[in-house]
Amino acid sequence: MKNELDKCIGCKVAFCNGCPCGTDVGHIIQLIKSGNLDEAGQLLFFNNPLSAITGAICPSHEFCTKSCILSRKGNPVNFSNIEREISKQYLEKLATGELGIAIQDNLHARHFAVVGGGPAGIAFAFYAILAGHNVVLFERESELGGMLRYGIPDMRLDKSLIDKLENVLVNRMGIRIYKNTEFVSSKDYFDEIIVATGVGSSKRLDIDGKEHAIGALEFLKEMNTSPCDLTGQNIVIVGGGNVAVDCAIVAKHHGANTTLCYRKSKQDLRAYPKEIEHAEKMGVKFEFWASPSQIKKGKAIFERDGKEISFCSDKTIIAIGQDITKPEIDGAHYIGDCVTGTRTIIEAVASAKKLLDKLHKEAIAKAKEFFKLD
Ligand SMILES: Cc1cc2nc3c(=O)[nH]c(=O)nc-3n(C[C@H](O)[C@H](O)[C@H](O)COP(=O)(O)OP(=O)(O)OC[C@H]3O[C@@H](n4cnc5c(N)ncnc54)[C@H](O)[C@@H]3O)c2cc1C
Ligand code: SF4
Fold first, then answer.
1. Are residues 269 and 298 in the same domain?
2. pTM for the predicted model, two decimal places
3. Residue 64 included in any domain
């Protein structure tokens, strides 16, 4: 963290405003430099309750790091390193009760049902309760976190951060969370229903033998919930995005001979360069210009330059994108990945904040009208 702090030249007019949630990078760095760590942590957390998590895995090179003026010289401040350290400490203090949270009294309180406990649902519930509304969050799975819990590999994200955040939401803020509960519409009980159900399922390939393959999200969920030793197995991954590379990293980490096959060139890979480099260093093999044509038991067959090539494959994983499947609920509001397709945690948080801001303003306006206030 110190290296990154030292790099910051404290621009009078700061350009480092690329965070989708408007994190005030320059101000936070100044606070840390002057020793106000809790204040910096507070600013980060209340601007983005998942800051300890985004600090660890936000693709900041697309956002705040990219907007730092020093990126023009190729050596920008990597703010996520700073955010990770400060936010982790701050979350710890909130979870243990060393620091408190003030929740507004709200005469205009509304009853919100939040469907989905991923980043978007968590962020909406957080801001709604802070503003004094009543919130019930429904999560289909047995644990909170959405893709943070079931998609992103353990090696990239310390899942205890989600547990600590949940502890704060439930025990310090009083958010009611029902897990193992798939939401079935019941508008009667709630003023508003907020749908934050994410993308749903992996896209399937329509080729012969597709039944022998498994979807990327299903594979990652399986390895996140009950990881197993894959030593000696051959695993072939079809795709070239971040999710494909995550599958490759997980398979390799658990001992499999791992090959990632992509239908275009290395330069066309959509995964982040840092992740590709990491996978290469781990020993993942990459095959380019390989289009999948058939999957057989024990074999994945591709076409390259009009010729057939095949790889031994005990498990073929299809990582070519996700299909959005969301509940259609009359009058509901939709946020996060279920609107945009897979994006990023910080964009899911930003969409939740934007919606809460709108609904909160509407609640106040309605109350003023009702009580005939100015
Ligand atoms: C493999 C992978 C790696 C990623 N890596 C990164 C990364 O490094 N950095 C980054 O910023 N982003 C990353 N992302 C993207 C990020 O995880 C998502 O953008 C983010 O999780 C979206 O949040 P969300 O709340 O919209 O959806 P989700 O996280 O998908 O959460 C939706 C939740 O809704 C629940 N749900 C669905 N239907 C119902 C229902 N009917 N009733 C109740 N609950 C329901 C689901 O169980 C789930 O918990 C990654 C995504 C994947 C798949
Ligand atoms: S959430 Fe991401 S973009 Fe926003 S300040 Fe943190 S690292 Fe930068």
1. yes
2. 0.96
3. yes
Within a domain: residue 104? Answer: no
Do 217 and 360 lie in a common domain?
A: no
From the CA of 47, which ligand is nearest? 2
Phi then psi for residue 28, to 5 deg, are: -65, -40
Atom of ligand 2 nearest to the CA of 58: 2
Q: Point out the ligand 1 atom lying closest to the alpha carbon of residue 345.
A: 11
The pLDDT profile of the chain, 374 residues, written as one tens digit per residue, is 888 899 999 988 888 999 999 999 999 999 999 999 999 999 999 999 999 999 999 999 999 999 999 999 899 999 999 999 999 999 999 999 999 998 888 777 899 999 999 999 999 999 999 999 999 999 999 999 999 999 999 999 999 999 999 999 999 999 999 999 998 776 678 999 999 999 989 999 999 999 999 999 999 999 999 999 999 999 999 999 999 999 999 999 999 999 999 999 999 999 999 999 999 999 999 999 999 999 999 999 999 999 999 999 999 999 999 999 999 998 999 999 999 999 999 999 999 999 999 999 988 887 777 666 66
The residue whose C-alpha atom lies closest to atom 4 belonging to ligand 2 is: 19
Rounded to 5 degrees, φ, ψ at 342 are -60, 120
